[in-house]
Amino acid sequence: MNNVFINELSQVPLQSRSLEITERKGLGHPDTMCDNIMNQISVDLSTEYVKRFGTIYHHNMDKGLIAAGGTTVKFGGGKVNKPILIVYGDRATFKVGNEEVPVNEIAEKSTKTWLKKNLRFIDPDIHVKFQSEIKPGSAALQDIFSRKKKGQYLGANDTSAAVGFAPYTEQEKLILGLEKYLNSRDYKKEHPEVGEDIKIMALRRGKKVDLTVAIAIVDRFIKSEDDYFKRKDEILDTIHTWIDDKGGFEGVDVALNALDVRGRGLDGLYLTVLGTSAEAGDSGQVGRGNNVRGVIALLRPMSSEAAAGKNPVSHVGKIYNMLCYKIADRIIDEVNGVEETYVWLLSRIGRPINEPSVISAQVIPQKGISMKSLESSIEEIIDDEFDHLDDFCSALADGHVGLR
Hints:
Blueprint: E1 4-8, E2 19-25, H1 30-53, E3 59-60, E4 64-67, E5 70-72, E6 79-82, E7 84-88, E8 91-92, E9 95-96, E10 99-100, H2 103-118, H3 124-127, E11 128-132, E12 135-136, H4 139-147, E13 161-166, H5 170-182, H6 185-190, E14 194-205, E15 208-218, H7 225-246, E16 251-256, E17 271-272, E18 284-285, E19 296-297, H8 316-334, E20 338-346, E21 358-365, H9 372-387, H10 389-397
Parallel strand pairs: 1-21, 7-11, 8-12, 15-16, 15-17
Antiparallel strand pairs: 2-14, 2-19, 3-8, 4-7, 4-18, 5-6, 9-10, 13-20, 14-15, 20-21
């Protein structure tokens, strides 16, 4: 490809810097819920379009909102006073020829299925209301889909830039792994009081890490204030044990539910009825949470596009966002001598998605390695990914490649 730029990046790799700040919003955080729900709707809509018409039609489900409901927490179990509101926005194809596509019904069914699978205490038929503001797409964007000829790629339906990085730092791996551990089925069996809404903020200074962990504790499992703090200490012990088993740091200090205050009863505790702050305390929105790698890496360049919910065949905000990370991963895994890499892709609206305006791989070589020795291998990886772009888009469409 003629528009590939590979250059050496003159900076210290993030892993070697003295300061690093990273965040992870867990499975039950309202922003993460929003991203995953809207992305699942796109996957299910894509499946429906292919089933009915043999191809994926125009849709972008990347505008979504969770408006917090209302609850009353209580030792032994509180109640939901006002349901959570989930609002769907943006555009989809409602009609092909004379055949109607039940877009709103698919959106609601996808949401209910995702909630039942991922949040133990939400009954979407009782605890959630749905509001659809999905409308038919603009004529110009829908027309992109009708222009495709056999063997050709669709034109990009946006002018968009994306960036991906590799590898993870040890801190990024730490908070990703910890949230996955706390939200695992095995952990929930031992600690059912741990809700799915888990947020971790990490600060590394040198090799010492401070973690601020917020966990929505489920009130039905808590008998009293003393019981809350007893269980909190037990959870904190399991966190320290898990971290100690990983090693790699000189010390990790963990502050769990740092707003808690003894002696204030229910007002001084982070208790929830359903295991998520979306029930009363916090709303959510697509694009405000983790990047597609599952973290908020505050000292790295990040794409401004939200990949969640965008269509997987023409919207570069999804395709390039995901592809940048795949290319970056392959560079690290397959090219000897690369310390860290950042991969950039830029589209121009209307141009085929396999013809980006620019592809840039910025590389920090390992000590003693020349950039010249790396370039051809990196170009081969980029060429190979674009040669198999159809396969990648198919994996996005069926959910085999998704958010972390």
